[in-house]
Design a protein that fits this description.
Structural class: mainly beta
Radius of gyration: 24 Å
Oligomer: single chain
Largest sheet: 5 strands, mixed
Number of domains: 3
Distance between the termini: 42 Å
Strand content: over 45%
């Protein structure tokens, strides 16, 4: 069946999501019945094109990001020296290099880098060692993949021995042994560590808070929790490694937590649960996104005998505040949070679709910008 849908859009099997969207846009434009005098042939063809697009996007599996190469030009440096970082990756929508200079200094992040390249950094003001991290993010509607690796670069021994003040010599003690494959900075008190391909948590003294057993970890700084995957299931843990949302959900059945609520799917219906897995909004929707500005887009089937869904908005109590009459704005292009491409509010506005065009509505549901656009690029303020 999947091969047939690819052929309808003139694509080879395994085409990327961008190729699917581009083909749909072209075919929908050329075969739209309104442009062909309402011809029955074009009506049927247009329905096949829509059906193919919906099937392929719904069943599209975003390939996981991979780090093919990651190394630096020096293992030891002095304050003020340059260091070059080399990387090669694939399947990442956002490539980030993060430089951690130690507790006393701020991190520096460089985002939206290319799939491969090299970059020279001048390193000033750092502790006895610094961590250079490579993080790959890949996002789709209900799935996120985060892959990371880190290289520790030490300060030259000759520089460390110069740390004296008023006849008092400063010595440095190794607190956390060099045994981990990677790390993730969480706070001044906590860090994620990778051992044998699995992630766990340690405190600032190197004590293991939870064993390295998770397939992936992602720190949600605003909510103070970590989303994780364990044996193909998704859940959440706190910064002490204690499970707060048990690992009972399939990977695609648990969303991203915002404003204290996270979308979840049970029996093929979506609802929202809180940090204690208490059901706040019943599992009755056919699709659900995230909360922002107190509102979340959710979808309901438009009729008993229809496979079409329409989006509206609910508040954090579950009250329906904007009618269910909008389509998914699938052409949207969001760089910071590309895994959500449907009507999430930012600064009081949301980009939604209607009749294959996009426009903006405000939090009262009023149309602010008419439905005349194919796409929009915005930066989500709620991910700051």
């Amino acid at each position: 069946m999947g091969d047939y849908y690819y052929k309808i859009l003139g694509l080879e099997k395994g085409a990327s999501l961008e190729e699917i969207k581009a083909a749909y846009k072209e075919y929908a434009k050329n075969f739209h019945p309104d442009k062909q005098g309402g011809s029955e042939f074009f009506k049927k063809r247009f329905q096949e094109i829509q059906e193919a697009y919906e099937y392929l996007t719904k069943n599209y599996n975003q390939p996981k990001p991979e780090i093919l190469e990651f190394h630096v030009s020096k293992e030891e440096i002095s304050d003020g020296e340059f260091i070059e970082v080399y990387w090669e990756t694939k399947n990442a929508k956002n490539v980030i290099i993060s430089i951690d200079r130690g507790k006393k200094f701020e991190h520096t992040n460089y985002e939206n880098l290319g799939d491969f390249g090299k970059k020279k950094f001048k390193i000033s003001n750092f502790d006895n060692e610094l961590s250079i991290c490579l993080v790959l993010w890949s996002f789709s509607e209900k799935k996120e993949d985060v892959v990371g690796d880190a290289i520790v670069v030490k300060k030259k021994v000759s520089d460390i021995t110069k740390c004296t003040h008023v006849n008092r010599s400063y010595t440095f003690e190794l607190v956390i042994p060099y045994q981990y494959e990677g790390f993730m900075n969480i706070s001044k008190e906590r860090a994620g560590v990778k051992l044998n391909g699995k992630w766990g948590l340690i405190d600032k003294n190197g004590n293991l808070l939870c064993p390295c057993k998770y397939d992936s970890l992602f720190f949600n700084e605003k909510e103070g929790l970590l989303s994780a995957e364990l044996n193909g299931k998704s859940g959440y843990i706190n910064q002490n490694g204690v499970e707060v949302i048990p690992f009972r959900y399939n990977k695609d059945d648990l969303g991203f937590m915002c404003e204290g609520l996270v979308s979840a799917r049970k029996n093929n219906k979506w609802g929202f649960i809180d940090k204690n897995e208490r059901c706040v909004i019943p599992f009755e929707y056919d699709d659900a996104s995230i909360f922002s500005n107190g509102l979340a887009p959710v979808a309901l089937q438009s009729g008993w005998f229809s496979n079409k869904i329409k989006y509206g908005y609910i508040d954090t109590t579950g009250a329906k505040v904007i009618p269910f009459k909008y389509d998914k704005a699938y052409e949207i292009d969001i760089f910071i949070s590309p895994y959500y491409d449907i009507g999430v509010f930012s600064d009081g506005l949301a980009f939604v679709g209607k009749n294959n065009k996009g426009g903006y509505i405000n939090s009262q549901g009023n149309i602010v910008v008419p439905f005349i656009y194919d796409a929009v690029s915005i930066v989500m303020s709620f991910i700051k």
